[in-house]
Amino acid sequence: MAKTSKIVKALRAPKYPVQQHNRCLKCGRPRAYMRQFGICRICFRELALQGNIPGVRKSSW
């Protein structure tokens, strides 16, 4: 989990547009962000396994 101060800082409007950084909407993680879903890979995996993301299915072979 990201520190509360980092999440609050990320929610503020940036002084310049280039300073914006994508963060996971669920946990605030800045890395491994999936733009299509707006969450990080860890949260994506959890939600996909629970079946909460429509059209996504766990693959196995």
TrEMBL record:
A single Gene Ontology CC term: ribosome
Pfam families noted in UniProt: Ribosomal_S14 (PF00253)
Sorted UniProt keywords: Metal-binding, Ribonucleoprotein, Ribosomal protein, RNA-binding, rRNA-binding, Zinc
Cofactor note: Binds 1 zinc ion per subunit.
Membrane-spanning segments: none
Needed co-factor(s): Zn(2+)
Binding sites annotated in the UniProt record for Zn(2+): C24, C27, C40, C43
Protein's UniProt keywords contain Ribosomal protein: yes
Superkingdom, taxonomy of origin: Bacteria
Gene3D superfamilies: 30s Ribosomal Protein S14, Chain N (4.10.830.10)
Protein's job: Binds 16S rRNA, required for the assembly of 30S particles and may also be responsible for determining the conformation of the 16S rRNA at the A site.
Complex formation: Part of the 30S ribosomal subunit. Contacts proteins S3 and S10.
Family: Belongs to the universal ribosomal protein uS14 family. Zinc-binding uS14 subfamily.
The name this protein goes by in its record: Small ribosomal subunit protein uS14
